[in-house]
Each structure stands twice: as structure tokens, then as C-alpha cells.
Amino acid sequence: MDTPTQTWDLTTVDGVRDYVKGTPFSSSGKIVILSGGYTNFVYRVTLDEPFRGKTTVVIKHSKPYARSSVYLPLEISRQSFEVEALRRVRTIIPEGALVTVPEVYLFDEKECAIIMEDAGVESVPLKQFMIEGRLSVPMGERLGAALGEFAGRLHVWGKDPNLLEYFEGHKMAKELFAWFYYDRLYGLIDPSKESDVAALRDPPLEISDGDLAIIKKVGEDMATAVKNAKDTFVMGDFWPGNMAVHATEENELLRVYVLDWEICRPGLAGIEIGQFCSEIDCVRHFYPA
């Protein structure tokens, strides 16, 4: 997709302020750059007047490359697929569900900007919430059940042929996920080459030729499986860093928002759940309660 000619510079706070001036999202107050993302320019905007009962919104601006690296090209069409996913998924979530997705207020295709519901000024990623020790066992059980219900509902609904046909057009999502997790796996750990990952260089990773061969085969097989998968619709990046927790000062869970649907696609439910479980296990391992 060609990059549209843009009027506003949404890579800066001043540009964002000018962009929203005179709209229901105008702001003369705080506009904060949100950290954590690598591909987009994301801001929390404090509104001059509440919009649908909210005093803040999030603005997400995309470029045809990653924010963290202009040398990583990314298709602008990823925004259209994310907006379509958010809007469709919201229709299957029960009213008042603990786990949900943000509402899209406005999608400006020309400026490559999404204005959406904010999880809350005090919201934090689930990963951070866990690391800070704020998630008790009873809360974890409740949230785990709710996330399981969310994923199950998504993957059952996601088998609809028309839905899969539409999102099959998001070729970049499959290619990017396959490359990030599987295509480059062997190259990262091949002892005959210097790894790009410092932790794998010092100390050197010790791995037998037999294990190396297995890992290479697994990487190749899984990359092929990801690229050809049409089992169900998947969120694409289902991990605790993409789940914003809105809680009280007493750590009572109010709502959890599943964010960043840019690589949603037809995929494999097992990989989606496996990714989530492995990330949770990493937190458990490195930050034991």
C-alpha cells in the first residue's frame, strides 16, 4: 500500500497538539509519549473536555517503518487491519467483561492515526503489574479465567470463513511473526557465528550438534506452519506486555484491555496460548513471589 500524503507531523507532541486542535479531542494539557512500543508513535492525550465520559484518549500514529528503526519496513495497511480487528472483536465481548479491547473513536487513514479509548492514566501492563507483586493468587485465578474465556471466545468465533478470508490479506503479519520467532532462531544460536544477542555471546552458548539440528528443523517447520496457517483468527501478540491493567489503589481489578492488534491474522491457537504461557512463566522464573 502506498503511503498517503500527510498534513500533520504526528511524530512530535507539538504536531499531535496541532492535529487535535478544534476537534472533540483538543488538548491544552498533557500529551505524553507512551513507552513500550517499538513500531508506532503512541500518545496519551489529556482532553480539554471529556469524550464519552473519558478525560484522556490514546493516539496511535504509524509510519511505513518501525519507530525504533527506519530500516525495518512495515506496511501502513497494518493499521487498517488493527482497526477492523478491534471493531469486530468488541462485538463479541459481553457487556461488563473483565477482559476487553479499547473502543476505536476515530480512524484517520490519511494521517495514519487511530484515536482510541485509554485504559486509564494509572493503568500498567500486566507484566509490570505482576513484577510489582500487585497480583494476588485469588486475583490471578480470576484474571486467568477471564483471559482464558476471552481467548477461547476469540478462537471459536475466529473460525468464521469470511473473517479468515478478510484477514488473510494481512500477509505482513504472518511474514513478520514467522521471521521474528522462527526464521531467525537458528542464526541467533548458531555457535559458528557471532550472535546478535549479547547474552548468547558472553558466556558462549554451549549446544550440541544434535540439539542444534533439532532447533533448526523446528524453526523451519514452525515458520512454514505460521505462514500457511488458516485454523482460526488470532490476536497475534498475546502476551502480558500487551494487556493494560486498570485497577484501584487497593489493586482491585477493574478492567483489562488487550492492546496492539497489528499482527492479527489467520493462525494457530496453540501458538497464541503457548506464547502467553511462556511469557507468564518467564515472569514467574525471574521474579518469584
From TrEMBL:
<dbReference type="GO" id="GO:0016301">
    <property type="term" value="F:kinase activity"/>
</dbReference>
<dbReference type="Pfam" id="PF01636">
    <property type="entry name" value="APH"/>
</dbReference>
<dbReference type="GO" id="GO:0005524">
    <property type="term" value="F:ATP binding"/>
</dbReference>
<keyword id="KW-0067">ATP-binding</keyword>
<feature type="domain" description="Aminoglycoside phosphotransferase">
    <location>
        <begin position="31"/>
        <end position="277"/>
    </location>
</feature>
<dbReference type="InterPro" id="IPR002575">
    <property type="entry name" value="Aminoglycoside_PTrfase"/>
</dbReference>
<comment type="similarity">
    <text>Belongs to the methylthioribose kinase family.</text>
</comment>
<dbReference type="InterPro" id="IPR011009">
    <property type="entry name" value="Kinase-like_dom_sf"/>
</dbReference>
<keyword id="KW-0808">Transferase</keyword>
<keyword id="KW-0418">Kinase</keyword>
<keyword id="KW-0547">Nucleotide-binding</keyword>
<protein>
    <recommendedName>
        <fullName>Aminoglycoside phosphotransferase domain-containing protein</fullName>
    </recommendedName>
</protein>
